[in-house]
Amino acid sequence: MWLSRFLVVLVVFALCMSAEAQQSGKIPRIGVLLDGEVSLLESFRQGLRDLGYIEDKNILIEYRFVKGNPDRISALAADLIDKKVKLILTAGTARARAIQQVTVVTPIVLAFSGDPVAGGVAASLARPGGNVTGLSMISPEVSGKRLELLKEAAPKISRIGVLWDRVVPENIFDFRTTEVAAQAIRLKIESLEVRKPEDLERNFSLALRRRISALIVIGGGVTNREQKRIVAFELKNRLPTVHELLTYAESGGLMAYGVNQADMFRRAAKYVDKILKGAKPAALPIEQPTKFELVINLKTAKQIGFTIPQTVLYRADKLIK
Length: 321
Hints:
Elements: H1 2-26, E1 29-34, H2 41-50, E2 60-65, H3 73-82, E3 88-90, H4 93-100, E4 108-110, E5 132-134, H5 142-153, E6 159-165, H6 170-184, E7 188-194, H7 199-209, E8 214-217, H8 221-225, H9 227-236, E9 241-243, H10 246-250, E10 255-258, H11 261-276, E11 293-297, H12 298-303, H13 310-313, E12 318-320
Parallel strand pairs: 1-2, 1-3, 3-4, 4-5, 6-7, 6-8, 8-9, 9-10, 11-12
Antiparallel strand pairs: 10-11
């Protein structure tokens, strides 16, 4: 009797040890370090599932969130490194650069970013050369395209406010290209720079004092997190607006023209797969967008009493009714 009990205990012990070894050794562990992109995580997980990875079965994911405080990035990244993650998924070159201050060895995958070269985290798009790779939203002509759409939708506008996050390095490029495009079609631009959420109200007041007749909103840490406040300002003041992030149109913004970030998060899973299979981020080219989408919220147009021309409606990829 005692022998059979001993054998049972031995078998249970062996199974536990095997499970622990599998959990810590064979199943890859990756890190995710994000801020306001939580809603896009399901797209990333779907991308993993498409490649055969099932969370908590054959891949483990450690989640860390900045929660609006970029000063936390270094500590959160260090914590992920202590967890021995194989790579860190993040978004934005500023965040990637902060993680690089902690590690230049652990691969960093950008689910999306502006210009990683101008942002100082990659040597080139074709051969990043360091520990950062992934996807970029950079496209020189897209800023001008947003301006053209806004002018076509609202031909009588003359002064446009550009709300942008000054902390994001590549946003300087977006703002300047918007300025150049505006000069070409004789529109005046008002720069509405924000660095922290508290700057929004000051810029809202400035926009009203300067009598802007339309608005362009460029994505960034603050502008991404404060979508509700920004959309509320647009609606209250009946401002025709075009946004960089498609989610803005879904949250009540009038129009959005840009890349599908949910799709980028899904595609980022392919980089994770390649790195887990041995590829080096230094040699994995950073992808640029090939398709941009136009989303128009017709409910918002009706709410602010704005009629969008048929020529613009015909070009929309999605109409929210």
